[in-house]
């Protein structure tokens, strides 16, 4: 992933969308995780993933108007919250994991989008992480199936509704990551589609045949005649003939007229 000039958005301005959506999703995850009212109970107090509400005297410091205070599960001991079952622990773990990993991914997106030319596969990996964060956030609803909620009669409250919206925003962030195109070839220039391959044109005009004949005399006195012919399709035809030495050395027969030297005696 080569780094280019800052704020050039080499993959296009569409990368701003997952950045903004992930920020909203993280804020909702934070509210849902640390809320004392993820679910309401029949005993009149709220139940959260990390904190819960307890009833305190009205003069107690930082007590709300309804006489309850938001505190951690370890601060007070009572019959409802002493033994948290596996479903409740799983909901807590998923909420904490979504909160911590979500913060890291928000930083990654806002570090990569403005100035790093990342491939489409890289953005799909980021989208896969956002998809996983949405699943983790959805699993916080396991709190409603825990023993605490079975005893106290839980119903979805403000924190739980916020958690559902956080899940939707994480998945929306994942969807926009899958829409990010490949980076531009040169920073600052509009992204252009790669050129299509063009078939090579082959000339159809016929090529006139050409013929070349050469002769050479071998060491044994034979004469070798080689004819190279160029065909219309560009190929070559080679024809070789050889005259033996005896035929090559045979003298030509020449007819010579001789005068008649005979004479008649008178």
Quick tags:
disordered C terminus, rod-shaped, alpha+beta, 3-stranded antiparallel sheet, single chain, 8 strands, 266 residues
Strand order of the largest sheet: 2-1-5
Distance between the termini: 128 Å
Count of helical stretches: 6
Give average pLDDT, whole number. 79
Largest sheet: 3 strands, antiparallel
Using only C-alpha atoms, the radius of gyration works out to 47 Å
Show unreliable segments.
58-63, 201-207, 252-266
* Topology, number of strands: 8
Estimate percent helicity: 25-40%
Shape: rod-shaped
Find the structural class using helix and strand composition: alpha+beta
Q: List SSEs in N-to-C order.
A: HEEEEHHHEHEEEH
Approximately what portion of the residues adopt beta-strand conformation? 15-25%
Write the layout of secondary structure elements.
Layout: H1 16-34, E1 39-40, E2 46-47, E3 51-55, E4 68-72, H2 86-112, H3 120-138, H4 147-152, E5 155-156, H5 158-177, E6 210-217, E7 223-230, E8 236-243, H6 245-249
Antiparallel strand pairs: 1-2, 1-5, 3-4, 6-7, 7-8
């Amino acid at each position: 992933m080569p780094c280019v000039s800052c704020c050039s958005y080499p993959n296009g301005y569409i990368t701003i969308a997952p950045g903004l959506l992930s920020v909203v999703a993280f804020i909702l995850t934070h509210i849902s995780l640390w809320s004392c009212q993820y679910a309401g109970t029949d005993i009149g107090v709220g139940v959260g993933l990390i904190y819960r509400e307890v009833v305190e005297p009205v003069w107690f410091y930082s007590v709300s108007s309804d006489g309850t205070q938001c505190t951690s599960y370890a601060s007070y001991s009572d019959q409802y919250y002493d033994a948290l079952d596996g479903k409740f622990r799983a909901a807590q773990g998923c909420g904490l994991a979504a909160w911590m990993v979500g913060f890291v991914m928000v930083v990654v997106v806002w570090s990569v989008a403005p100035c790093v030319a990342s491939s489409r596969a890289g953005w799909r990996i980021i989208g896969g992480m956002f998809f996983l964060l949405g699943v983790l956030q959805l699993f916080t609803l396991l709190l409603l199936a825990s023993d605490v909620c079975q005893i106290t009669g839980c119903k979805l409250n403000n924190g739980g509704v916020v958690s559902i919206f956080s899940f939707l925003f994480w998945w929306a962030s994942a969807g926009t990551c899958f829409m990010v195109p490949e980076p531009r070839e040169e920073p600052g220039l509009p992204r252009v589609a790669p050129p299509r391959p063009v078939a090579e044109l082959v000339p159809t005009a016929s090529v006139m045949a050409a013929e070349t004949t050469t002769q050479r005399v071998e060491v044994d006195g034979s004469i070798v005649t080689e004819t190279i012919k160029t065909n219309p399709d560009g190929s070559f035809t080679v024809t070789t003939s050889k005259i033996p030495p005896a035929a090559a050395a045979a003298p030509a027969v020449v007819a010579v007229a001789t005068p008649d030297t005979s004479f008649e005696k008178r």
